Amino acid sequence: MPFDVKDILRQLEAGFAPESGAPKWWQESWEDPDGFAVALAEAHAGRGVPPPKSRPGQQYDFFHDLIVRHVALERPAFRTHVRIQGWQALAYRTLHDLAARRASEWADQGVEPGAKVCLVHGVGQELLVSLLATLKLGGCFTLLPPMGPRAMATRLEALTPDFIAAEPHQLPLLKGHEQLLLKSQGRGAPGFTSHTYKPTDVVGLLFSPLVDPPHTPVPLTAENAWKGAIGDGMLTFGLGQGDILAAPDFPVLQHLPALLFATLLRGATYLHLDMADLALNPAPLLEHPLRALGVTPKLRDLLLRHRASLRNVQHWFRNPEEPYDAQAWRTWVKQCGLQSVPSSNILIDASAGGAVLVSSRGVTEAPTDVHTDVFPVPGRAWTLKDPNESGQGAPTDVGVFTLQPDKDRPPGHVLLARIRQRYHYAGTQGFRHEGRPYSAKEVTAALEGVPFLVGTSVVPVSTGGLASHSRFILLAFTGATPAPPSSEQEINRRVEMLLGGDFLPDRIEFFPLFPHRVKGAVDDAWCASQFFTGALHRKAKDPMFQALTALRGRLLASAAASGEDVPSPVR
After folding, report:
1. Which superkingdom does the taxonomy of this entry point to (predicted)?
2. Based on the structure, what is the number of domains in the chain?
3. Is the pLDDT higher at 398 or at 408?
4. 352 in the same domain as 445
5. What DSSP designation does 393 have?
6. Is 471 inside any structural domain?
7. Which of 13, 68, 283, 525 has the most CB atoms at less than 10 Å from its CB?
């Protein structure tokens, strides 16, 4: 099918009314994703820079298309603000030289096409240099920002990397894998051509927080990575050379490298700001013209408190999987002076290549400036499947959004509702926290051995509302001894130390009881049933159950002291 990309870009800038459905070209792109990708690639080539080496459906040279094409423009590829030093910029040419030298060093250490390289870096210069060095060598990268040692061990065991890139002070997080650490001293001599990937080559193995369990590596093919980057760069965000994209507080594992690829492919600048620094002073966010700004509820509330005026923003977007508090968003839009600034819903899954659901980028009427409208992203085949998980198509107008082909991909989780020509984000399949499953098994395992706990279980609770937001409550059983005053702080400290802040439960409920067990393991189904019916609360206050719990505690202590097998607590 022929696609007029110039006309498409004009339509996206003007916006369109979602009542009329997706434009004709958008619907045709679902039917002919290959032809649509070719049309975007031809329009992307542009003037003033070397042509891209990648050819949709044939070959992909990420290092050339992301970096080499733009070195002559003398523009920053990455910009960040550090609390003491202030603004720091990394030009495309500098980034090219650093990555080329690192690739040369790594090649001497055995990194070759297909090698699995785990990048243990936070967002910053080291991450970009290591990522691009891996791409230049044809490696398969994995982003793994520093977490707690237990979470790191679980993910490294699942990944089995060939090499690890990390800074020396991060060695304690790599226990048992120290021998895989790459040495990078900046002394390599830049040379040799960059690697060209085939469409089906796996360019990345990503720990997507949208996948259950989240420590499962998900393959990202070269074709999905490149097509996602060009679609997001040109259409989702409308980036051009020199434009700036920022998304403070957006979860790294869900959104990178997709946002980086989309930005660099278009010769734009990725702006990184740490939320801890913004909480003290949000002024850096206001100092540069932003072509696109991603806003989370946390950033929204921060800007509300500081009464910031965002006159430097040309387009802002939010993740539709976050809690839908329309009143808070509208208050923020009004206070920040964004009534005439385009806004959109954008759901990004880096393991799928980038954005998977988007809405029109136009300006809507005040009552609907925050909405639930989304469309499957242009240029990707998709279908709605029945929520019964049978794999059949949805017989109604509500189903699980599933990208095609779905072979070897994790099952979809987003419920999409079709109302006439419009599509709405309708929540998730199962309980999730802002679209992300909660790693309950990792949390309860990390709490084993806490002196005042005899068992734990995690119970998800729906708060209702349009987005079906969920909270995850940790049930902490203390046996015959009541919980000490500092127990909640101790649990949170242990979870954060061993796993990381993202693993903290939304709430902790203590019960001076013993949980029911099956083959020695806490019976989660029993715990949930007892919690939802109120039985746990009643038993915790009932004198008879308190006496039985005390007796059971003495029996268990006596059995443990004598070396006998500890009996499994009964109901």
Report:
1. Bacteria
2. 2
3. 398
4. no
5. B
6. yes
7. 68
Question: Which residues make beta-bridge pairs with 470?
Answer: 462
pLDDT tens column, 475-513: 999 988 888 999 999 999 999 999 999 999 999 999 999
pLDDT in tens, 240-278: 999 999 999 999 999 999 999 999 999 999 999 999 999
CATH number at residue 545: 3.30.300.30
pLDDT for the residue numbered 364? 57
Q: What is the DSSP string of 230-292?
A: HHIIIIIS---TT-EEE-TT--HHHHTTHHHHHHHHTT-EEEE--HHHHHH--GGGGSS-BSE
Under a CB-based contact definition with an 8 Å cutoff, are residues 80 and 88 in contact? yes
Q: Rounded to an integer, what distance in angstroms lies between the CA atom of residue 177 and that of residue 183?
A: 14
Residue 181, strand partner residues: 164
Q: Which two tokens stand for residue 293?
A: 């700004």
Measured CA to CA, the distance from residue 381 to residue 492 in angstroms comes to 43
Is residue 447 scored above 50 in pLDDT? yes
Residues 314 and 289 sit within 8 Å (Cβ to Cβ) = yes
Q: Of 372, 395, 430, which one is at a domain's C-terminal end? A: 372
Who's near 554: CB < 8 A, 6+ residues apart?
480
Residue 544, by phi and psi: left (phi above 0), alpha (psi -120 to 50) or beta?
alpha
Q: In terms of Cα–Cα distance, which of 463, 470, 400, 416 is closest to 438?
A: 470
Instruction: Verify that 356 and 258 share a domain, yes or no.
Output: yes
Tokens of 187: 């002394």
Enumerate long-range contacts of 460-466, CB under 8 Å, 24 or more apart.
460/431, 462/431, 463/323, 465/323, 465/324, 466/324, 466/372, 466/426, 466/427
| DSSP-derived secondary structure letter, 126 | H
Burial 454-480 (b: 16+ CB within 10 A, else e): bbbbbbbbeeeeebbbbebbbbbbbbb
Count CB atoms within 10 A of the CB of residue 305: 10
Does residue 354 contact residue 262 with C-beta atoms inside 8 Å?
A: yes
pLDDT of the residue at 321: 92
Q: Quick count: other Cβ atoms within 10 Å of Cβ 278?
A: 20
User: Are 99 and 107 a contacting pair, CB within 8 Å?
Assistant: no
Residue 343 located in a structural domain:
yes
Question: Residue 259 sits in which domain range?
Answer: 49-372
State the average pLDDT for the chain: 90
| CB neighbour list of residue 239: distance below 8 Å, 6 or more residues apart | 233, 245, 262, 263, 266, 268, 291, 292
β pairing state of 354-358 and 343-349: antiparallel
Q: Please choose, from the candidates 231, 229, 264, 260, the residue with its C-alpha nearest in 3D space to the C-alpha of residue 64.
A: 264
Neighbouring C-beta atoms of residue 494, cutoff 10 Å: 18
pTM of the model: 0.93
Strands 398-403 and 382-385: antiparallel
Is 242 in the same domain as 161? yes
